[in-house]
Specification:
- The protein is mainly alpha-helical.
- Helices cover 55% and strands 11% of the residues.
- The protein has 6 helices and 3 strands; from the N terminus they run αααβααββα.
- It has helices at residues 3-12, 40-52, 56-67, 72-79, 83-95, 115-130; strands spanning 70-71, 99-104, 107-112.
- The radius of gyration is 26 Å and the shape is elongated.
């Protein structure tokens, strides 16, 4: 049966696919809560944050920093990428407010600003793994 035939059949028999005859006042169905309206500024900031997290190396950095604060050479060793590349990605993450660095002697130790950001990345990775 084609879609057109199905639609025509329903028109011939109003009981097929039609909503039951009920008065709106008789049903105790609650309306779904409306999502809160966000300001354009908030939405733009969220978009900037998600763009900062969008690169695979930056995702890997966030996952590493979720475990413990690390300096650049620790990230180079753990991720197997060059120091300039790690530094470039850390600069993006720092500019987006995802990480902050604290100088300890000759090194800068990086850590996540808060755990909310790690949850975003962990959930995204878990979702990607579910699809496999």
């Amino acid at each position: 049966m084609s879609i057109a035939a199905g639609a025509g059949s329903a028109e011939l028999d109003p009981g097929i696919g039609a909503a039951p005859d009920t008065d709106d006042h008789d049903t105790a169905r609650a309306e779904p809560a409306a999502a809160p309206v966000r300001t354009p500024r908030t939405l733009a900031a969220a978009g900037d944050l998600l763009r900062a997290l969008a690169a695979p190396v930056r995702i890997a950095i966030v996952l590493q920093l979720q475990e413990a604060p690390r300096c650049v050479h620790d990230l180079v060793d753990a991720l197997g990428v060059t120091q300039p590349l790690i530094s470039q990605h850390l600069r993006v993450l720092k500019g987006a407010g995802v990480v902050h660095g604290e100088r300890q002697g000759r090194e800068v130790v990086y850590s996540l600003v808060d755990d909310h950001l790690a949850h975003i990345v962990v959930d995204a990775v878990a979702h990607a793994e579910e699809g496999r």
